[in-house]
Amino acid sequence: MKKVYGSATEALDGLLKDGMLIAAGGFGLCGIPELLIDALVESGVKDLTIASNNAGVDGFGLGKLLETRQIKKMMSSYVGENAEFMRQYLSGELELEFNPQGTLAERMRAGGAGIPGFYTKTGVGTVIAEGKEHKDFRGETYILEEGIFADISIVKAWKADATGNAIFRKTARNFNPPAAMCGKVCIMEVEEIVPVGSLDPDCIHMPGVYVHRLIQGTHEKRIEQRTVRQKAEA
What we know:
The protein has helices spanning 8-12, 34-43, 62-67, 83-90, 101-112, 176-181, and strands at residues 21-24, 48-51, 71-76, 95-98, 117-120, 134-137, 140-146, 150-161, 166-167, 183-194, 213-216. It is an alpha/beta fold. The strands form 2 sheets. Strands 1, 2, 3, 4, 8, 9, 10 and 11 form an 8-stranded mixed beta sheet that branches. A 3-stranded antiparallel beta sheet has the order 5-7-6. GO terms for molecular function: CoA-transferase activity.
C-alpha cells in the first residue's frame, strides 16, 4: 500500500470535509505539523473541531486556521500564546473544551486503543468535572472522560521509513504519538524518510501500522518563547 505522498495537499486529498474532528500533534510550537496545517488553510475546509494541546500562536501553526475562521471548536490544554484565540473565545465566536494535559493525552491514546472512556481523579471538584459522570473507587471520587476518535490525525515526526515507522525528537514525543493513534486516518509529515530496515526497532516510537499517509518536507521550526541569559563577563 502506498504511504509516501508528494505534498501535504496530495496527502490530504479525499479526506477533508466541513465539520470534521482533527487531532493535531505538537507541544507548543515543537513538533507541529506545519505543512499539513498550511494545506488545511489552503483547502478552505471549515467548522473544524481541533484536538490539540496548544492552539498555535498568531500567524503560525493552528493560529493560521484561527485567523481564517476555519476552526469552530478547540479541545486544548493551553491557549495562552494566541491573542486571536483569546479574542474569538471571549467574543463567543469560538467554542473551547479545556482538558488537563494528561487527560487530553490519555483521551487520544484511549481512542487509539479503542477504549471509549476511562475514570480519572484529575479535575474532580473543579469546572472540568461539571456535567461528567462521577464514580467512587476505594473511597476516592473519579470522573469519566471519553476517548477521542478523530476523523483524521495530523502529526510530525523526525524520521520515518516508507512504511511509517517513526521516531520523534524530545518534546515532540509528548502529543504526537497519542494524536497519531486516535485518527481514523493518520497523515504524518517528517523531516527525513529513510530506507526500510534502517531504523533500530528498539528506537521506533510509533509503529507504521498507525500511519496511513506520509510526506517529507522542510520545516521552519519556530521558537515560541526565546529565553536567553546574559553572557557572563570574563
